[in-house]
Design brief:
0% strand; elongated
């Protein structure tokens, strides 16, 4: 669980910083910047989780990558939906993103542990 938190926090920090830079310095729309943040954080997340968080599962990278991509895309769909709702409700974009990243992390951990990184998924 320690490595999941460390890897997740690293990926979330990258995601957050990309969104912040794109919105504050390039005036990109927050939802569009969120896509760029997700894409960059995906690589950090997959490598970190495969090598550290779920290394004991011994799942092969070639098998885990497509499953983790599905988990990540599902997480991102939830992320984008919740982010859009919070932005529409008037929350400041950084606070909204922080809340969304924390909320989606739990779902990602459950699906990653029990499916994406299992050596032989059910």
């Amino acid at each position: 669980m320690f490595y999941f938190g460390l890897v997740g926090a690293s990926a979330a920090l990258l995601h957050f910083c990309v969104v912040w830079l794109l919105v504050s310095h390039w005036q990109m729309a927050a939802l569009a910047a969120n896509v760029a943040g997700f894409v960059l954080a995906f690589g950090v997340s997959f490598v970190g989780h495969h090598r550290f968080s779920f290394a004991s599962s011994q799942a092969k990278a070639g098998a885990a990558l497509p499953r983790f991509a599905i988990v990540a895309l599902l997480g991102f769909a939830c992320n984008e939906l919740l982010y859009g709702l919070l932005l529409a409700a008037g929350l400041e974009y950084r606070l909204a993103l922080l809340l969304v990243l924390l909320a989606v992390a739990a779902m990602t951990w459950i699906l990653s542990r029990h499916w994406a990184f299992r050596s032989s998924p059910p």
